[in-house]
What we know:
Blueprint: H1 4-18, H2 22-25, H3 30-39, H4 61-75, H5 78-103, H6 105-129, H7 137-154
Helix pairs in contact: 1-3, 1-4
Amino acid sequence: MLNKNYSEAAVEVLDILNHMNAKDLAKVSKKFITFLNENASRDYICNLDYSKKLNDMDLKKETRGLLAVMYRSYWCPEEELEDLQAKLYENEQKYQNELREKYNPDNIFKKHNKIEKLGEENIEENNLNITMYKESFFKKIINKIKKIFNKSNNK
Length: 155
């Protein structure tokens, strides 16, 4: 079973196919139509406005994708097929580049390093304001001895 969006898209595609002329519908494989019927949502009801052109209809992104695959596979003329495949390839490359820029591990680490450097600068600024004096080990021993003698002198 497909996810919800594709199940609803299958309903929309089947509805479009029901409004298509018989000549174009005959070009679609029966196996593909069976696949759509098996995976179509039983709950989703689409209300497509057929007074509009297909491009102007309010279709799901997944429906448009299925229709593009169907056009390439069943209805596209030979002379147009090469241009369509080049355009699809170009779109896929753009999409992959966007993903690469968005999720590039090198850029993620650069951003993390910038944040880390800013944090270090703030810590350094804060450290300048705080001055801590530590007693040396020998100084501590001498002070302990003095305390012991002071206690014994006070008695």
